[in-house]
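Figure S4 source data
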Amino acid sequence: SSSPLLREHPPKDGRSAGERRRGCGHHGVMLNRLFFSAAAWTGLGLLSGLYWREFTKLNEFTGETMLSTAHTHALALGALVFLAALALAKVFPLAEKSGKLFALLYNIGMAFTFGAMVVKGTLQVLEAPIATSAMWPGFAGLGHMLISGTFVYFFIILRRAMQADATTPSFTVT
């Protein structure tokens, strides 16, 4: 029989020790989704910057290409927005379902925008006639519209979380 002092006590928040280590439970799934989205867009941003530099050099291309702005879109609109959302979700009690929906829709919008930019930029470097098609700005535009709408949605769920947080009494240890 072990000493009562050495016995593991269940966490006070109802999560198992494993859930606490993994950040699961309550809104841990949403936080993980936001974190991995930020990490993925960081990776895509860095890789697309490298791709832009090396692909244009390899093809001796010196003209304008959408590849020059694709990496900044991934880093600024992808990574930084998800990092900001992660910080806000950690501070305010965002609803799990709403946060997951935000992450899903925002990622879809980013994929449309970023994907169209990379494809069009690649075609521009290759000087393919289809690079001038209105299809590419159309895809990127749809992505930007989805990103914009999802950004407004995030403000709505953030406001709800702030209002819910304001009604929860807070205690200060002195």
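Figure S5 source data
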Amino acid sequence: VLKRKNNFYNFQETMTLRKSQKGFTLVEVLIVIAIIGLLGTLAVVAIGSSKRKARDAKRVSDIKQIQNALYLHNSDRAVYPTVAEPIRLGEGTDCSGFSCSTLSSDGGFSNTPAGTTYVANLPNNPRPSGSAYLYQSPDGLTYTLGFTLEGPLGELFGPNCLATPDKIDCTGTF
């Protein structure tokens, strides 16, 4: 019980009472829990965005690797592998009932290499989203690689992207 002196509480007695009270109030605990929850939510959102960007960066890297292999094939054979209809690279059964998992000089895209091997294992699109990498070259003079992005990545604004011998563009569809 506080005693009044000149219409003011005795400061020394007040401090003695507060020192004897240990712990936090319910309001203080709830505020700390709310702050921790907010920080946790922000961390989860940032991690999800980073994973999406990492998958998209891998997709662009994969396409550049395939472009380099196609350049080498064209340097040796003077044409790109001829494929009239789009095929899925690295997965599916588009190459005579097998997956198109390699690129070689004599076999083109196939499941087994023949001649000089440019890519022994064609990359697959990283999961969980996106579709297979698609390749098409009806005449062997040029080609189109189709792929999807989950979101913007640098100058590529997706989602539908096309790669040709001289550029990667995300304004069209395959």
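The first strand starts at residue 4 and ends at 5. Strands lie at 4-5, 8-9, 83-89, 102-104, 108-110, 117-119, 133-137, 144-148, 160-164, 167-169.
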